[in-house]
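User: Show me a protein chain along with its predicted structure.
Assistant: Here is one chain, sequence first, then structure tokens.
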Amino acid sequence: MTNDAEVAQKAADAEREAIRQVVTVLQQRFPGLDDATVAGYVTDIHKRFDTARIRDFVPLLVEREAGRALTRLTDETIPAPRQQSE
């Protein structure tokens, strides 16, 4: 039988792996951004959930928030197309 510490360790390991997958997914989704930038956003956002008591959905929440932040970042760095005058 496993004790509470082993269960907690397995859950923490599973969450770390899920966060690594989030980084990979977002790096593929935002190929124009440096991999370190994407990983940094994910890490910073993941830290905001350190005190969350329920951990099941943390990777999903991190992916959504990081995706929104990276979208805003790319929207700010990519110039808008020029409008042709009529």
